[in-house]
């Protein structure tokens, strides 16, 4: 059985998409980021928690503050990407549940008393949304360079507060020269899927 999605779109989103390591200097506009968000906000999360929060790093001053927290191998590409996004989990996401999950008015109360439960839910669901975000960047015809090689505690202290946990940094833009490393192998279907 084949997929319904056009093969060209399949290639754009998955087969030909890669983590970019260099970028051109073509700007990424606020309108492009808005279009990406307006698409990926529909990706499912548990109880529609939607805990992902995004900090766009544009100014040279903010960029310099971020680069110092990146692993050495990630510093140059983060310094030169047209746009950098810090993707974080909002551990106080439950405050938005009356709006996001209105058919269950007690939803907020389920999480109000347990920071640990909120952090677990926020991390899992924001990670889902981070994956949607990367796919959305690709859908916009841009390249994404997601990275977890960084000082997360330093990024949190520099850009966030105690209620927001950074998950990753994503460089965004048009791929530059030699943007791609060779594609790494993937596991075969039978190595991943078990029928019981």
Describe, in plain words, how this protein is organized in 3D:
With 196 residues, this protein is α+β, with helices and mostly antiparallel strands. It contains 9 helices and 4 strands. The protein has helices at 7-15, 30-40, 60-67, 72-80, 97-100, 107-112, 115-139, 152-159, 189-192, and strands at 52-57, 83-90, 143-147, 164-173. It has a 4-stranded antiparallel sheet with strand order 1-2-4-3. The protein is globular, with a radius of gyration of 18 Å. The two termini are 21 Å apart.
Keywords:
196 residues; globular; four-stranded antiparallel β-sheet
Report the structural category.
Answer: alpha+beta
Helix content: 40-55%
From the alpha carbons, calculate the radius of gyration and give it in angstroms.
Answer: 18 Å
Please give the number of β-strands.
Answer: 4
Number of helices: 9
End-to-end span in angstroms? 21 Å
Residue fraction in strands: 5-15%
How would the global form be characterised?
Answer: globular
Biggest sheet strand order reads: 1-2-4-3
Overall mean confidence score, pLDDT: 96
The parts where pLDDT drops under 50 for at least 5 residues are none
The biggest beta sheet, please? 4 strands, antiparallel
